[in-house]
Amino acid sequence: MLENVEQIVQKIKEETNNLDDIIYRKKIIKKKKVYIIYNEPLTSSDKISDFIVRSLNHIEQEKFSTKNLFEIVENDISNFKVKKINTYQDVCLYLHKGFTIILIDGESEALALETKANISRGINAPDTESTVRGAKDAFVEDYQINLGLIKKRIKTNDLWIKSLNIGKYTATQIGVLSIHGVVKEELVNQVMKQLKQIDIYGIIDSGMIKNLIEKETKSLFPTIITTERPDVVSKALLEGKVAIVVDNSPYVLIIPGVLNDFFKTMEDMYGKGSNVTFTRILKFLSFIIALFTPAVYIALITYNQEMIPTDLLANFATQRDGVPFPAFFEGFIMIISFEILRESDLRVPSFSGSALSIVGALILGEAAVNAGIVSPIMIIIIAITAISSLPFTEYELINALRWYRILFMLGAAFLGIVGVFAVAIFFFIRMCTLESFGKPYLMPFAPTIFSSLKNSIVKFPIKSLKKRQPYLSDNRIKERSKSK
Amino acid sequence: MKGKINCLQYSTIMIIILVSSFMGIGVYSLVKAAGVDAYLSILLAAIIGIPVLLLFLYINSYEPDLSLPLKLEKLYGKKLGKVFTFFCSLFIFIFANNYMFNLTNFIVSQFLPETPLLVIGIVFAFLAAYANLQGLETLSRLSLILLFINIALFGIGIFGLIPSFEFDNLKPFLEFGIARPLKATFYVNTLSIFTIFSLLIIPKNKMVDSKNFNRAVVISYLIGLFFIFTFCIITLGILGIHLASIYQYPEYIILKHVNLFGFLDRIENIITATWIFGLFISITFAIYYVSTCIAPKKEKKNIPIILVTLALLFSVHIIPNNTSFNSYIYYVAPFLKMIYFCIFIIIGITIFIKKRKKNNN
Amino acid sequence: MKKLKLLILTMGIFLITGCYNYRELTQIALTSAIGIDKSENGEYVVSIQVLNTQKQGGDSSSSGDMTKFILYTSRGKTLQHALRTTIFNSPRRLYLNHMSLLLISERVAKEGIEDLLDYFARNAEFRKQFLVVVSRDSDPSDVMQVVTPLEALNAQNIVDSIIADAKYYGMTSKITYEDMLKNYLNPRTNIILPSVKYLGNAKKGEKEGNVKQSEPDASIEIQPMAIFKDEKLVGYLTDEESRGLSYIQNNINNSILTCNCNHDGVFTLEMVLNKTKLKADLKHQKIQIHINAKSNIKEINCDLDLLDPNTITEIEKMANHHLEKMIQDLIENILNNYETDIFGFEELLYKTDPNTYHKLQKQYGEELLENFDFEVTANITVQAKGNIIKEITR
């Protein structure tokens, strides 16, 4: 296939429309035509001139007779990572990956030599999942560095990586990580099966993979954890989960993700059990508050006034006096304006952020009340709701809460507290139906796994957490010596 | 794992069915029948119910792989089995209507007096159908979660009610002898305990840990009756016999007395979620029962929807008002349940005879 | 997703077609108290006190000018009719769940309150926890229009003073509607209710200016308990009798007891930690009332040597005697003059031994309690005599 070098070079030139970026260097060694081809923006020319060209020059000067040229080049080239390739497709693939290709006339195989340029940023502290203590490194866009960050933490032969390329144009490298012997093989197979089924023009980020392999497309709640912290990934792997590393994405996917996982942070590992329990109860409360508060308020104020103490109700009535909108609509306006504010805050350059907060606080708070558009109590309700949706690192979870919040508000506006109960039943049915890669979404609670409840809302001291979650791993005991 | 549930989930369904079939109508019937000694009748009923429970376990252990309609088919042959299945599901369908009316009537009378029964019925019927479409696994998980919530709310309620509980209201003890409470056990048995037979629709071997099955059933039977007992004794202890006998929903009225730490009162509407959730699970499970009876082997998606719609229409249109519902519950429903129970006695006897024959051969 | 859409769609349809019970706070009139009277021609005259929830003017300084409540009056053949037709005067529908006080006029109480009991019990709009009070010698509307100092809301003012009285003096007790209903439904108990009286100038009292003086023109005064026989008011107790009743019913937490000395002069004890035990003996037809209390000397105007331990015993004896006599007199008076069992003695007899009770009732009928002996024993212990150890004399 690769015997006719000139023809191949011509073909590449044709297909790339004579792209300037691809450099072809022709050399004649031992009367044989040798082509050195590389993609300039992806490669480091230092490496090429230092190792490849110099080695080739060295080979040229040497005197030998017996072996053929290909073997000599393969043997003597001072580049470390050498791959033999034998198809035209591979030649193109490695070329676009930043390898340097050495084509020798008359040989059926070519050599791909790793000469990637370092076009990745350095390792920074995590942006979205900051912790008070714990490791401060975060994933970057480079696949190898990301793998390195994980492998640095897990030093075992059992860390198995199954890799594949996805995407017609991007050919993005994807690695499925798992610890052999801990993970349930069926989970890995399931993930691989899902990944292989993907047929798409390109993968830009792990978020796309996430959406493509998530089975529960109906669900608003995330069933896959995304993280930028290598320590989170390492811990998940040790528990028997599967991680998916995607090239060019600083976010790694962890499978499966059940609801309870989103209440946990890395810091929970480091804190005292009792303190962590308190934090988790707070999170759980804020989850409930974020879901129910506006709905319950609307229900109380428009249907079930008997539930509010008399003095408070008189206050509410006085404040509501003169507000022309129905309570539901009033709440809806406020929620929408808060969401707009939040979205703008994410997108706006940091230097105009303070202007935004002034506008938000003044216009939406003080002025709206004075103008009689909303009642002060509604501002408080929305503020509590907004704060309560923030302690979760998973952005998708917050977004899912948003939809359900509005659904609950609709229920409340329709049937009062009974409507809230009805929507709550619907919410529970959804949550109970939901599964993340075959694992029930409400896992340690329903169906109840008593041993896993030790690390759910409450967290027992780390010493007493000797067993893995039975739904994640057959290898239940955490200490290796006992299990083998 | 697929399609399987565990014993805990099974017990939660059982507890919810036991308790919620009693809600709203039980205390009314008991007080009418037994007066102040109503709470005693529950204790007596717990003892009288033991043979019923044994019968339930006995039928369950026959062909543990099969659900009730298939069991009946195996027992009586295709035709007779179908007849039995038909009657079982007919009764359960009637009970589903009762639950439906109880739920909607309760909501309308206490929360939303101007809303038509039908509107509230539609909402809950929709949810019941939706839950049914998701299958037994979802249903069992749902009941587990709702039971957790119910127990928490129940605890709050009881905690807030203890200060207003007066032992004096439970006196005099057995004024008319044991006869009246004994008579009232009939109501506990028929209204509440006999409903456990609807659980036969879940075959025993569907449980992942079916070896714990008997224990789970007995424990949930006790827990369920304990809840009923607490409801009854708290109601009587707070309201006294005279008030308890005039209210339509005395169990709800007592919740107005809940006062936690001196400021957290007026929360009866929140605690009432226990009723709504419990009755909802009962309706849903009854619909599951009937739709499984109709199509025992394959899942048919539209059956639950049709059933729920029928139950909704029947409950709204056949029962004209709560006066007739109350007299129906007091005079007719117990006898219907008695007939329903008799079916299972016959089934039990048949199983016994069949086993005997097998042993002789 | 299809189902979710369907759900949202259904919900949306319902929202558009109208929410049946939807009531904005600006559409309801929060009712704090209802007063019931009857006109000459037998119609109900209902006074309704509604919280004023109108927003005060822009600056907060002017907020004092607004009245805290509004009083509506309406008439009707039935209570529901009268209450609903308040709409003729008011732009909002009454919201009754937050009602804290029901005021019954003397006239209605004397004619019988059974219809009224039925109405409030049947209606799910009412919580059954509001207080019921008889307005003595005065129209409920007069009582309800007085603007009261300290607690601006009239109804809350009455409720609070009754609660405070029940807590620190013991003349009245906090009787909710449900308690009243319970007492009425039980054939062996009778209704008792606290009462209030309107004092002063009616015309001036309804003005906001009433509270701008240190001595208001009009005021409301808590009065002793009103007693009923079956559904009808039969009379009022005196202050002392009223407290005696509270002692019998074990309703006293803290009270004061003023007794005469053996020689001359008076002394006052503060009663704390009171406990009354009732015991019925159906065989010997006897009811024992045993009062156990601890007390502190608060004031002493007698010629007594407080340093002598025997004096304390003497004081205890005098107090015991006083209390025993007070209660004996009360029971005698009620049973002889009113022939109504407001103490719950019959209920006690019934609960102790139902069978014997029924027998006795057959035997004596209405005059059952008159055949019983009442044995009152008081056991008051004086704990402390305050900051000083002896009487101040020169």
Walk me through what this model shows.
The complex is a heterotrimer of chains A (484), B (361) and C (394). In chain A, 46% of the residues lie in helices and 13% in strands. Chain A has 484 residues and is an alpha+beta fold. In chain A, the strands form 3 sheets. Chain A has a 5-stranded antiparallel sheet, sandwiched between helices. In chain A, strands 6-7-9-10-8 form a 5-stranded antiparallel sheet, with helices on both faces. The two termini of chain A are 49 Å apart. With 361 residues, chain B is an all-alpha fold. Chain B has helices spanning 7-20, 26-34, 38-61, 68-110, 117-133, 136-161, 179-191, 213-244, 250-253, 268-271, 273-294, 302-318, 322-360; strands at 259-260, 264-265. In chain B, helix 1 (7-20) packs across helix 11 (273-294) and helix 3 (38-61) packs parallel to helix 13 (322-360). The two termini of chain B are 38 Å apart. With 394 residues, chain C is α/β, with parallel strands linked by helices. In chain C, helix 9 (239-248) packs across helix 10 (309-338) and helix 11 (345-352) packs across helix 12. Chain A binds chain B through residues 303-304, 306-309, 415-419, 421-422, 424-426, 428-429, 431-433, 438, 440, 442, 445-448, and chain B through 1, 5-6, 8-9, 107, 111-112, 115, 119-120, 123-124, 127, 130-131, 134, 137-138, 140-142, 144-146, 148, 263, 265-267, 269-270, 273, 276-277, 280.
